[in-house]
Amino acid sequence: MAVAMILKLGTMISGLLVWGIAVNLLLPLHSAHLHVLSQRVPLPGPDLRQCLKGSPCCLQVPDDGTEAVKFERNASIPVRERLSAKTALQSSEYVKKLAMAYRKMRELQHNDPEDPRGMEQQRLVHCVYCSGGLAYGREYDVHNNWFFLPWHRMYLYFHERILAAMVGDPDFRLVFWSWDSRSGREFPAAFRRPSSPLFDRNRNDNDWNLRALVSNATRREMLRTTIVDADTHELFLGRPLGSEQGGLIETGSHNAIHAAVGRQTPPFHNMGNLSWAAADPVFFAHHANVDRLWWVWLRLPTATTTRRCNPPDHTWRCSRFVFYDENAVLTSISVKDVLETEQNLRYTYEDVENDWLPSREQMIRRYAERRRNIASLWEISSRASTWPTLLRAATAVRSSGNIVDCPLLALGRGNRQRTEPFDSESPQGGYRGDSTTTTRTPAHACSATSEHAAAYGTLVVSLDSFHLSCQSPFLFHVYITCTYWNGEETISRPHYLSSLYSFPASGSRTRVTRTVQFPIAEALGSDLDLWERANWTLRIVPQELGTEPMGTLSLLLPSVRVEWLYPTITQRRERP
């Protein structure tokens, strides 16, 4: 018996020793991985030899095993404008050259499937970085975080250089489909011809439906919220890895255009499925416009500065990704390499009319007015102690595709609240009819502790770590309703904030967690003056997209708040 106990003790000790060795060997690696996911260190770029087993999209490994070379600016490439599709496609010469470039790219795919410059290999580049980390890990998923815009800028640059080499013209540039403008919203005609290499048969083939979806995706109100009012890089570009918070340009019109152009039936190829989207040449015209809007956004003023700014963080600027260039050379490129498009990437954008964009003078006047409104609100806020939260939902919000109302509460008095039937056919339409209900809604104890609120604070509604599940593209419209008594009757005014769009990726998770923040001060306008005596309700209007809704939409919002959002210290400036 004693011998058995000794043997058992020896086994336990051996096991502990093995465990200790394993911990000491593996913990540093695990910690480094966590540091990457929480963005404590820059991404070094994926090792193409380490593609995850079973991944549907791995990139070619260099035959000679050489490491990626670092990107260097090629000053011999002339600086040229990327033109709008409306302008460029009027030139038959350009249309022929664009079609020739994609024809050669498709022929290369057929003749040498492993050449990284072929069309299918170019599709795989997007699949690798945009399908939930199925290839090289979650840290190399560039959607729903602050790498979305710079990574796609890199991708467009290398794709453009490959096309230019195929037609032997260093002046060649991609076109951008200016879907944000009424004059450029129509789907580019050159991409419609079935005989052209620009055509993709896996598209929405209902012209009326496509036109309606694109129109809905580019509403003036949504562009206002996602570009004009999103005046901090946290709102426009998104937050670091692990936050699951994409920028509003991504979750708004970008996602919506993808869902509109792709087939309207499962699996929603090509543009409506992240894994396959880049198989359609119009993908690159679409993303060139997204890139242009980043270029436009940086040139807009804020309340305290003449221009907007990118994240200053070293972890963002020095993170790297790898691409094959026009000579099939594996190249490592950092975010900071692509921030100067004219100097480093050798292109600018045609200056087209942005009919949704206020003039600079109008924006400065609106900022001055908003600053006065927010200063008044800060005076109210400073009397409480729940900074930075002003309002919050009392319970989690759930929806299985149904419209839900979420009263925004804080400790205080009771109030009367008016609710009316909702016209779900129109995102801006709001309410109709005349039914009134009375609810006990505590008055809103607004809070603040920072004297910078009036100058720097942005008032946002935050939907934190919400869980969504859907096997098809979907959206939800977001409204905030102000309800108050004017002395004679109860007035209820809905304000459309924006819409969030999502679309799937083959093989990735259908259940995901996201965070989104919408700026609200501009949308509420003069109703901010009613803050202390009004009731406020958030309304979520979900809608599954596609011609055959699958009924799989599920939404859970555990935390809804109205709060102050501050720019990082490096963004703050003294008032002019």
Account of the protein in words:
The strands form four sheets. Strands 6, 7, 8, 11, 12, 13, 14, 15, 16 and 17 form a ten-stranded antiparallel β-sheet that branches. The chain has a three-stranded mixed β-sheet with strand order 1-4-3, with helices on one face. The protein is an alpha+beta fold and 576 residues long. The longest helix has 36 residues, at 2-37. Helices cover 32% and strands 18% of the residues. Strand 12 (474-485) and strand 13 form a beta hairpin. The chain is globular and about 75 Å long. It folds into two domains: 80-349, Orthogonal Bundle (di-copper center containing domain from catechol oxidase); 361-571, no CATH class. It is built from 15 helices and 17 strands. It has helices at residues 2-37, 85-88, 92-111, 119-129, 148-166, 207-217, 220-228, 233-236, 248-261, 282-298, 314-317, 341-345, 360-381, 453-456, 521-524, and strands spanning 69-70, 80-82, 320-324, 330-334, 347-349, 389-393, 397-399, 404-409, 422-423, 430-431, 458-469, 474-485, 490-502, 511-519, 535-544, 554-557, 559-565. Residues 5-36, 411-454 and 568-576 have low confidence and may be disordered. Keywords: Copper, Metal-binding, Oxidoreductase.
The CATH topology of the largest domain turns out to be: di-copper center containing domain from catechol oxidase
Helical content (DSSP H or I, runs of 4+): 25-40%
What is the molecular shape? globular
Arithmetic mean of pLDDT: 83
Number of distinct helices: 15
Terminal CA distance reads 86 Å
Per CATH, the superfamily of the largest domain is Di-copper center containing domain from catechol oxidase
User: In the residues, how many domains can be counted?
Assistant: 2
**How many runs of DSSP E, i.e. beta strands?**
17
Region (Disordered): 416-442
Domain Tyrosinase copper-binding: 143-160, 280-291
Cofactor: Cu(2+)
Family: Belongs to the tyrosinase family.
